[in-house]
Specification:
Layout: H1 21-31, H2 36-51, E1 59-64, H3 71-82, E2 92-96, H4 97-100, H5 107-124, E3 129-133, H6 147-150, E4 165-170, H7 174-186, H8 196-208, H9 219-222, E5 228-231, H10 237-250, H11 257-266, E6 269-270, E7 277-278, H12 285-294
Parallel strand pairs: 1-4, 1-5, 2-3, 3-4
Antiparallel strand pairs: 6-7
The protein binds 2-acetamido-2-deoxy-beta-D-glucopyranose (2 copies).
One 2-acetamido-2-deoxy-beta-D-glucopyranose (NAG) binds next to α5.
Protein name: Torsin-1A
Binding site for ATP: 65-72
Keywords: ATP-binding, Cell projection, Cytoplasmic vesicle, Endoplasmic reticulum, Glycoprotein, Hydrolase, Membrane, Nucleotide-binding, Nucleus, Signal, Synapse
């Protein structure tokens, strides 16, 4: 067990509790761009939860936004800040809907399997992390299999799930998020003025009512078991440049503003007339960067 308040790099063992606020903040500040809402919610929720030795329920975060806005990236940062090896740690479990649960006809089998996996892994480490990617491609009803684990129970069949973290990633609700961001942009307001309350209620409702969200009429939402709906805003030109700059530095190249501009200019933006937001976020800038760095 770590001494109170200390933080000594990521762990190769399962902690009882953990203080990671400064390290997580540093990572989010230096690597995640254009996401003031997500940054704040994630930092407070995750570090608050981990430092609590006796949480009443597991932490459940549902991250929403278009591809390339940083949802997977943030999950990776969280995992790396807690466990050595990050996503490859024995205590971090990533489920990709189309990979792990492809066939609608096998849903009963998937439900059993998922419950067994979560039970087995939480028994081994109470602070296990479960990440569900592509929630929007998850078959209707499947995610409800994990409901008993997310509730305010001290134990379920002799196992306590209260220290686990569940993170759900999805594109569902991204249109709603974009609408709000675009409204702010059109009325000349700073995107940093967007508040969680401008997004969160509409987001949970639209996800609940969307057949392709993985959460359609889900008891997880009906029973308020999701702690935070975290919006990831669409990225602007200047954010792409930040992603590219950091990537160049990470690869050991000298920052070259000319290359940064050329890569950013290759990306496509929407809406058609105003061209404000990148339609792939920062997702493909790195492969485009390869092309210029190889020259
Ligand atoms: C999964 O579904 C396929 C096709 O529906 C079926 O043939 C197979 O037996 C199922 N697997 C199990 C283990 O139930
Ligand atoms: C833990 O989860 C993984 C899937 O990520 C699964 O393959 C493994 O069997 C689980 N472990 C236990 C002990 O259930």
């Amino acid at each position: 067990r770590l001494p109170s308040g200390s933080r000594v790099g990521s762990l190769s063992s399962c902690p009882d509790w953990l203080c990671l606020s400064p390290a997580l903040q540093k990572d989010l500040d230096s690597k995640l761009f254009g996401q003031h809402l997500a940054k704040k919610v994630i930092l407070n929720a995750v570090s608050g939860f981990l430092s609590n030795p006796k949480p009443k329920k597991p932490l459940t975060l549902s991250l929403h936004g278009w591809t390339g806005t940083g949802k997977n990236f943030v999950s990776k940062i969280i995992a790396e800040n807690i466990y050595e090896g990050g996503l490859n740690s024995d205590y971090v479990h990533l489920f990709v809907a189309t990979l792990h649960f492809p066939h609608a006809s096998n849903i009963t089998q998937y439900k059993d399997q998922l419950q067994q996996w979560i039970r087995g892994n939480v028994s081994a480490c109470a602070r296990s992390i479960f990440i569900f990617d592509e929630m929007d491609k998850m078959h209707v009803g499947l995610i409800d299999a994990i409901k008993p684990f997310l509730d305010y129970y001290d134990v379920v069949d002799e196992v306590s799930y209260q220290k686990a973290i569940f993170i759900f990633l999805s594109n569902a609700g991204a249109e709603r998020i974009t609408d709000v961001a675009l409204d702010f942009w059109r009325s000349g307001r700073q995107r940093e003025e967007i508040k969680l309350k401008d997004m969160e209620p509409a987001l949970s409702v639209s996800v609940f009512n969307n057949k392709n969200s993985g959460f359609w009429h889900s008891s997880l939402i009906a029973r308020n078991l999701i702690d935070y709906f975290v919006p990831f805003l669409p990225l602007e030109y200047k954010h792409l440049k930040m992603c590219i700059r950091v990537e160049m530095q990470a690869r050991g190249y000298e920052v070259d503003e000319d290359i940064i501009n050329r890569v950013a200019e290759e990306m496509t933006f929407f809406p058609k007339e105003e061209r404000v937001f990148s339609d792939k976020g920062c997702k493909t800038v790195f492969t485009k960067l390869d092309y210029y760095l190889d020259d």
